[in-house]
Write a structure and sequence with these properties.
This protein has 61 residues and is mainly α. The protein is built from three helices and no strands. It starts with a helix and ends in a 10-residue tail after the last helix.
Length: 61
């Protein structure tokens, strides 16, 4: 799957503590995302692939 290969090339693994790391991804996302991101078909595809969730609306995943 081409999409999966494109996503995987930017993933970096860090072992140990990184002071710049986002420790709570859910909290970070909830406080920084913009609702219009969820209108993008590419973003919806990524969410489906990573989380298995379907975006039904900007405020309903």
């Amino acid at each position: 799957m081409k999409l999966k290969q494109e996503i995987g090339k930017d993933v970096k693994h860090i072992f140990g503590y990184d002071e710049n790391a986002i420790l709570s991804v859910d909290t970070y996302f909830n406080n920084t995302y913009e609702e219009e991101w969820l209108d993008d078909p590419f973003v919806r595809q990524i969410i489906k692939m990573v989380d298995g969730s379907e975006v039904r609306d900007r405020q309903c995943i």
